Amino acid sequence: MINLRREADRLVEQIQGRTNTIAKTFDRVCDVLDSYGALASGASGLEVTPFGQKMRRISGDKDMLTALSLREGAFEDVDAAELAALVSILVYQAKREEGGLTPKMPSISLDVAVDVVLREWSQLEDAEEQHRLPRTSEPEFGLVWPIYKWARGRELQNVLSGTELAAGDFVRWVRQVIDLLDQLADVPGTDRRISRLCHEAIGLL
Q1: Nearest to 66, CA basis, from 193, 184, 172
Q2: How far apart are the C-alpha atoms of 48 and 56, rounded to whole Å?
């Protein structure tokens, strides 16, 4: 019984320690969200802004980057196939580090859109580093061309040619792209054209 009590006391100490750490991290996260206008001071303390409400509808490893890209117009001048390819850089994670320069994009519109995402990622990474938070991983481009080709109606063999993607992996990533497109279509206040485009891209995939 004495040993059990000692273990219980030790467990409580561990939980309290972790709680303090979580609280500090939470405050730093709030500072970043505040700096981006997702939170604002209100009568009862910090309140979620309309932009913050949009962020709440997006889930994923790059949720903040996705919301910022949406706000900054990255999705405005692309067609449905280009949108699907653009969204792929917000979900795809290569099995091993690919590195290197940004590859040539399938279109000028997509090239411009990718520049917006990369700019927002760079600024977000700086903010996360400044606040000692885990940094959002860099957008990866290994799925751009396969998704674009698939959305344009190419055969699977052609889509995967020249890549290291297995068919099963490709299908899994397509599902994740579809999931994010579905989320973006339902973000409150999203332009109706972008919402329709998300549904069109889902249909193509």
Answers
A1: 184
A2: 9
Residues 6+ apart with CB under 8 A from 10: none
Residues in the chain: 205
Q: What is the 3-state secondary structure (H, E, C) of 29-53?
A: HHHHHHHCCCEEEECCEEEECHHHH
CA distance 142 to 165: 9
Q: Which two tokens stand for residue 11?
A: 């467990």
To 10 degrees, what angle do helices 80-88 and 108-130 make? 30
H helices of the chain, in order, are 2-35, 50-56, 63-71, 80-88, 108-130, 144-151, 156-160, 167-185, 192-204
Burial class of residue 112, CB neighbours in 10 A (0-12, 13-18, 19+) = middle
Round to whole Å and give the CA distance between 46 and 172: 38
Residue 3 structure tokens? 């040993």
Phi, psi dihedral angles at 47 (to 5 degrees) = -125, 150
Give me the tens of pLDDT residue by residue for the chain, a chain 205 residues long: 455 556 656 655 665 666 678 778 888 888 898 899 888 887 777 888 889 888 888 988 899 999 999 999 999 999 999 999 999 999 999 877 655 567 899 999 999 999 999 999 999 999 999 999 999 999 999 999 999 999 999 999 999 998 889 999 999 999 999 999 999 999 988 889 999 999 999 999 9
Contact (CB, 8 A) for 80 and 38: no
